[in-house]
Structure formats: structure tokens, C-alpha cells
Amino acid sequence: MYCRTCGTSNSDTSNYCMHDGTALSKKEYQTKLQLVKKDAAFCSKCGHKTADIENYCSSCGNVLHTYEKATSDSLGKAASSFTMKESTQLPTFHWPKFELSFLKNALIPAIGAFVIMLLLNLAVSNSTESFYTDLMKDFPEEADFEMLIHELSEELDTNIKKPDPLYGFTDSVMQSHLIAPHFETSVKGVIDEDEGSFKVKFSLSFMLIIFIFIPIIATLIAGIIYGQRHKEASIPTRLYSALCIGLIYGLFLSIFSLFSGFSYDLNLVSEGDKINIEAATSYSFIKSFILAAILGTIFSFVGTLFAVNYRHFTRTLAETVPYGQVIHQSFSTFVRGLILSIAIGIAFIISKANELKENVLFMEFADLGPLTALIEKANTLSLMLGTQIGSTLWGMVHFTPLTLKVANDDENIDIAYSLFSGLELGSVPDYSDFLFDSIRLEGLGTSFTVKLLVMIPTLLFVWSGYKIAKSGQFSFVSIALYSAIYSLLVLALGSLSLLSVDFSMIQSASEYGDKASFYLGMGALGLFIRSFIFSYLVTFASGFITKLKG
User: Fold this and answer.
1) pLDDT given at position 491
2) What is the rounded average pLDDT of the residues 279-302?
3) Distance of alpha carbon 51 from alpha carbon 543, whole angstroms
4) Quick one: signal sequence residues (predicted)?
5) What's the rounded Cα separation, in Å, for the pair 482 and 464?
6) What burial letters (b/e) apply to 36-53, b meaning 16+ CB within 10 Å?
């Protein structure tokens, strides 16, 4: 039993919260006792005359009423204002006034979260660099970038500085917070007395899902630190403090974004020819603040609940906030389903990796080059790719197809892939029809085993409907709220899984522009609507049946 004021877990035999003394409501007492007013016109202790509206004697304070065991008939009489019935009223709480002390108390946890995030990203960045170095060892020496720079410097008789790594520590930090890089390069100069220039812009929106756990872990720890230091804080106070942690954390990251990215400036002069090359990668200041503040607020708040009850942290909301059981069930359904889906994705990738290893055993005499390093890192890659595939799969089991769109000046490609109907062609080039026809004949993604994956969210929705109905919070509105929260979580996950590339090149001399775009993901609106309808229908049916059975 959880206290509706502070969320502290108490034993089932407790009448009052052991932390703040709040009375703990118990159905067995609420439904079995009724208040009975005595009919006597005089006080039985001092004989003073009493009125019907008095519960206590105005002369001596003697109690003029008593409690008796309620019968089934008396409990059903709505006319009796003294009958105590089982209440299904939602818990309520009052929002405290915002104070500057919230910001003060959030400062240390926010700083701690940012430092932990930097350290985790530093470890990931070093590991990635080490993996890349091992991979490049198997490439021929002609592909050595440093050697190419040296040879070009000698040929042009000039000193060409080596550029910094295109992807480094700062990029790891930004992309772990879902901040997409914007790359821009420009080339201009004079060659054989002909002046010209062109500019290339490139935007990439993609991240490995596993990396988002870096800021999640950091802000969770921040919330736990706050929760341990302020155990007496109410749910609204914890929410205010989590918002302050998120805002401070977002401010730190937005400032960090100003020093993130890559820049390179090169000037080449040879026999009257001049070439200037500028390249830079940048990140949005505003987007950095908003996304980091959202991540920081949500997961630091979860951390404050974790400090109260680490086993069932969102269950604390069930008896402390309006629709608390609904919020708890929507979050739990999403987390449980995502974990199962990622486990399936990792198992699938590991099985394919083992098949590849077995095939390589028969090719020991062959020079596999970089493939050897990839095979040696199979476990790490399986974890990363399995998490990515599992996250995408969780969106697709809500009857949402994975869409591929490629567009340029000459042709467009539009393909949809569903776990239930397979490959669906929108517009494709004529020369590629045979390829997609062969894929369709193989029945890609339409096997009965794949379709059974829809049972995972179905069973989770059934369980949620049962628990919501048992809590007394079942209604059209509560199930709609459940589905809305759950669908927003699925939508957020879908946005993490997409791959989007925008490319443009403008050549000033001919005023010619070339644009291209690539998109692989699930449509945001379709994903939200499908997951909302799916979750609402199954959860409502489960709750309705539970209510009918009593």
C-alpha cells in the first residue's frame, strides 16, 4: 500500500503512513461501517438539550453518535448521508507554488547528470575510434588517408594540414541526444583563368537506439540523487524539481553544441590556380536545448520515483495522482513490450552472425580483409543492430508499415513493407521491377511466425485493461488517456528508428542545382493512429469484460 501524499510503501496492516502520518484508506473499513445518530434529545452524560444537527454535546463534548456494522441494505441506501461506501474517486493533490529553491536543489543533480553523460560518451567515442582503427588496418595502404594528404602536399608543393576526425567525441554527445548533424561544404576558386564554385549541403537524421541509453542513465541517476536527498518531497514537488533538472541539463547541452562538430579550411595555390575548400558540421542550439530538456525532465522524474520504490517505480503513481494506475500501466506496457522486442531482435541477429561465422570457417584460405574485423566484433554488433531492429519491430507490430522513399531530379521510389501484408510497391523505376518481384515471391515478412509477434502487445493490453478495471479507474476517458500516453511513447520510439538524408548541391557557374532525399522509417501520423486504435480496442475490451465478471 502506497501513501497518496509522499508515495512511501507501507505494509498492508498499516493505518497511517510511517513517513508522514497520512491516513491510509482501507476498503474493508470503508465498506463495513456506518455512522448512526442517536435519537435522544438530551445528552446521556450531562443531560443538556441537544439539536439534530449536533454530533457532539455543546456543553460537555460527549459524542452523540456511534458506529455500527453496516448491513447490505444500509450500504445500498443512498439517502443515508452517514453511510461510508467504497470510493472510486480519483486521488487528488495540490500543486505547490513554484519556488527558487527548486532550481537550487536541482543544480547539483543536473551537473552530476551532465558529467556522467560526458564520461559515458567519452568511453563510447574511444571504443568506436578503436574499432574503426582495427577495421582500417585491413585496408590496403593506398587507402591510408594520411598518406594521401602527404602525397598531395608534395605534388602541389604546399603544406596541407590534416583535418580533424569527421566524427568524434562532441558528435557522440550530440547524437546520443537525437541531435542530427548538418554538414555543409563549399569549393570556390580559379583554374585556368576560369572562376567557379559550388556548395554542398548534407543533413543526416539517424542514430543507433542503444546510444540514447547514455543520457537516460545519466538523468535517471540525477533523479535518484534528488530523491534520496528529498525523501519527504510530494509528487508535484518531484515533478517541479525534475523540470528544473531538465532545464539546467538542456542549458548545459545547448552551450556544449556551440563547441561541437567539425570544421576545416584549406587554401591551395599552384601556378596561378587557386582553390578554397571550407567544410563544417554544426548542430542546432535551440534543438539541443529542447530535446535535452525533455529527456532530462522525463527521466529525472522517473529517477525520483525510483528512489521511492526501485522495484515498481511508476506504481507509486497508482495511488498518488489522478489516473495514476492508467499512467503506470501505459508506461509499463511500453517498457515490457520494447524489452521483449529488443530481445527478439538481438536473438535474430546473433543467429545470423553465427551462420556467418560457420560459413567463414570454410573460407579460411581466403583474404576477407575488413570482414575479419567485423566478424571478431560480432557480439558487439549483434547488440547494437539487434536493439535497432527490435525497436523498429515494436512499431511495426502495431500494423504500421516500414516505408522507403527515395527522391531526386530524375526518379522517385516509394516502397512499403508490412509484417502482415509483405512488400507493397508504390512507385519504382521500370528497370527494378524484376528485383522487387523476386523479393515478393520469397514471401518476405509474411510468415505465420512473424505475424504471431502481434500477440505480444495484445497480451500486454489485455493485462493493462484488467489492472485498470480492478483499480476502479476504468472508463472511456481513462482508456483513451492510456492509449494516448502509450501511443506517444511508441511514436517517440519510431522517430528514433528512422533514417533520413537530405542532400543538395548548387553550382554557381551554371546555376544548376541538384537535390536528393532518402527516408526509411514509419510515418508519424499513421504510427500514432494505428497504435492508439489497437491499444484502445483491446484494453477497453479487456477492462469491460473484467467489470462484467465483477
Assistant:
1) 92
2) 91
3) 48
4) none
5) 9
6) eeeeeeebeeeeeebeee
3-state secondary structure of 548: helix
Q: What is the pLDDT of residue 370?
A: 54
Closest CA to 225 of 205, 241, 237: 241
Torsion of CA 487, 488, 492, 493, to 10 degrees: -30
Give residue 46's identity as a one-letter amino acid code: C
Which stretch of DSSP H or E encloses residue 516? strand 512-521
Q: List the beta strands (DSSP E) in 172-272.
A: 182-191, 194-205, 262-270
pLDDT of residue 29: 42
Helix axes 476-497 and 324-361, enclosed angle (nearest 10): 30
Mean residue pLDDT across the chain? 77
Cell of 113: 547528470
Query: If pLDDT is split at 50, 70 and 90, which confidence band does 74 have?
Result: very low
Does 507 score more than 50 pLDDT? Answer: yes
pLDDT, average across residues 178-190 = 82
Of 494, 474, 472, 492, nearest to 482 by C-alpha is 474
- Read off the DSSP letter of residue 368: -
Residues near 524 by Cβ (< 8 Å), separated by ≥ 6? 491, 494, 495
- Give 320-374 pLDDT, tens digit per residue: 677 788 888 998 999 999 999 999 888 888 887 777 766 665 555 445 555 555 6
Task: Centre a 10 Å sphere on the Cβ of residue 333 and count the other Cβ atoms it contains.
Answer: 24
Residue type, 172: S
In 362-491, DSSP assigns E strands to 402-408, 412-418, 422-427
Provide the grid cell at 520.
Answer: 526509411
Backbone dihedral region of 35: left (phi > 0), alpha (psi from -120 to 50 degrees) or beta? beta
Work out the number of other CB atoms within 10 angstroms of the CB of residue 332: 18
How many C-beta neighbours within 10 Å does residue 439 have? 16
Quickly list DSSP for 235-253.
Answer: HHHHHHHHHHHHHHHHHHH
Give the cell for residue 124: 563510447
Instruction: Report pLDDT for 88.
Output: 45
Task: Collect all residues with Cβ–Cβ distance below 8 Å to 260 and sequence separation of at least 6.
Answer: 170, 171, 173, 174, 282, 283
Q: How many whole angstroms separate alpha carbon 384 and alpha carbon 177?
A: 17
What are the angstrom distances between the C-alpha of 283 and each of 128, 263, 280, 356? 21, 12, 10, 38
Rounded CA separation 499/479 (Å): 32
User: Using CA atoms, how far apart are residues 488 and 527, in angstroms rounded to an integer?
Assistant: 9
Does residue 537 contact residue 454 with C-beta atoms inside 8 Å?
no
97 vs 303: which has the higher pLDDT: 303
